[in-house]
Records
---
Amino acid sequence: MSTIENQSILQLRDVTKIFARGTVDEVKALDSVNLDVYDQDFVTIIGSNGAGKSTLLNIIAGVFPPERGGKVIINGDDVTNLEEYRRAAYVGRVWQEPEVGTARKLSLEENLSLALLRARPRGLRIAINKKRRQLFCEALARLGLGLEDRLDTPAGTLSGGQRQALALVMATISRPAILLLDEHIATLDPKTAQTVLQLSDIIVKREKMTTIMVTHNMEIALRYGDRLIMMHEGRIVVDMGEADKKTLTVSDLVTAFERAAGEQFKDDTILLSPR
């Protein structure tokens, strides 16, 4: 676990989320989750469909609140009831689909300007000026994709991988307290997915970002990050640091899951090799 004076950047306390409460379709997506994420942690979260991974990120990002009594604390501030748009000052997020995180009709420069605006108080206008353009150029140049020469290009003309790379820069350019990577390579082809994963790792380490990355693949969860969490039926059943995960194989991780969950592992899809 990478910590500076053991500083907790994110605290989840007794976080539960129930959908369709009181109906035949009622689902407890999160079940009394408690979690501390520390400064510069790079946490990978693994779990089968319905484990609660995306719900957890949505709670952190403010898409919806936890059930009464649950708390979300970021950088010491209780943000439990803070609306999603106001939570953007604390949280940067890259979604599964490049189309969600970027506006296709706006230029790269305009997209990056909007990313900065999301992290500022309402009413503060962010103009595109020489200094800011230089900031955008430098941020894009670090990707090594030549996007710094295409500031006036509409985002919709980029490939899926380029748009996800742009989304990474947008999510981190304002230096949020925590970065959420929500299965952000799931829709990319294998070669592009590997490139975006490597770029993500570089950005997280270079910018010293506290990061949570949800993945649907055990090998990726073991390969990236310095802490691994496994979820099952809305609960955290495995939580291990870098020293432990470095020595594990996928088979070892399945065994750890079965011991913690008390049942046989059944989802073969997350055992597959990385895309």
Note: The first helix runs from residue 53 to 61.
---
Amino acid sequence: MSAFPHRHLLGIEGLTPPEVTALLDRSESYVEQNRRADKKKSVLRGRTVINLFFEASTRTRTSFELAGKRLGGDVINMSVSTSAIRKGETVLDTAMTLNAMHPDVLVVRHPESGAVKLLSEKVNCCVINAGDGSHEHPTQALLDALTIRRRLGRLEGLEVAICGDIVHSRVARSNIHLLAIMGARVRLVAPHTLIPAEAERLGVEVFHDMHEGLKGCDIVMMLRLQTERMQGNFLPSIREYFHFFGLDYDKMANAKPEALIMHPGPMNRGVEIDSVVADDYSRSVIHEQVEMGVAVRMACLELLSANLVEAPQHNI
């Protein structure tokens, strides 16, 4: 049996510790591969990967593109702004069209939660969720975990504070699931308006004060304000938000002296994080996260495509 016996990667929720470990262990080998002069392998030779992004993205799309090409696959990027969807075609019609082209992997980002799962039920290929609404962003959580594991040697027993716009963050949800699976303890730190109503049921601690929330933490993970998803007044002002919830050295002093600083990007400097803190390369691992992203996505593409032989055929 495969170390990762799934046809799709739609989320972290529901995975087992061995399955998460298998993805992280395979990713480790690609970190070193990507640092060599010859970065290419032929694992995906003859395979076709389509990046289908219904939302704009720079880091995630480029990372998946690099991952597919470094594995020797044929990679096609589809931007919805230039696709038939802008002309009235439905998501399922797009799925049917793409399915007829016999791709091997679809990497999908969509603004609606659950849309990627729906697509996965209508195509014959593997599907990787590159972020759906406020639901999940599994490869981001995996690259965060890989970054932490490489720096601190473990995930189990760590105290991780996730701070900022939790209610709109798929990154937060995937990280909460993964860290819980691997035995870490998670705290959410944000204003009342940015904490989801179901937060307590996720097995996390909730804080509304940065100084209290960061006490004794091993990891401080900042999130950007997703103003494009906000309808109504979530904050009095950006200036006030930074004063109380923006990460600076005064607030970082409450965490452990060696605590790592993380951010999935893109960063809003002076909003959720101070520039001096973001650029503190003795503690900030933000650029390492970007590097780990390519390795993680290579591992996901390899392990999922290896399961294609047994994939059933679907008719739309």
Note: The longest strand covers residues 126-132.
---
Amino acid sequence: MTAAGTPIAVVTGASSGIGAATARQLAAAGYRVVVTARRKDRIEALAAEINEAGHQATAYALDVTDRAAVDEFATAFRTIGVLVNNAGGALGADPVATGSPDDWRQMYETNVIGSLNVTQALLPALEASGDGTVVILSSTAGHATYEGGGGYVAAKNGARVLAETLRLEIVGRPVRVIEIAPGMVKTEEFATTRFRGDAEKAAKVYAGVAEPLTADDVAETITWAVTRPSHVNIDLLVVRPRAQASNTKVHREL
């Protein structure tokens, strides 16, 4: 699956945004990246771009909520150096009283069960590497709630607890567990997907914020954490734009 001595990094949700940016940066850092997502055309184009840049990448279409497909994917690997659980996302911004249970369920399935599926399936290969790293992309939403965010906050709390519990349970084994919790990140799809294609609502999320984080900012943070010496574990790294003091306190220049 890879040249001798070249560690493999698996990135889920790599078809756009943070996932795609992370794949590019890990490839530049010397990893053979395996980019996964449901949109096969997107990840194949990303893998081609990375390979054309002189790095190493392979595309694999995968729905992280499909456990059978995840288990089949895992059979391709004997060892893996890094797993970045990035697949996730938000749906809706309704209050608890009127929020859609289907939206809550889908967010939990993708953000929590999806990460659980891939982590469980690949943990033996990560441990077999002798120096594995699991990265969980949570969010500042997993550390503080806000109105209209109940479903997403609940899902990201689940992701946070997954990281914390796994770290406790595998201590002493050669696998680190890192949680990266981004705040306001402006990507091409996150807010638009949340508001089901309503570009006007999506734009309001970032209105007046001079410099929200970019996908590259978060990818650089992930790559930095992953490339620390193997005895160094970045348990939790919260990264926000300077304009954001909390989930509910944002400076806007209107």
Note: The chain is about 40% helix and 15% strand.
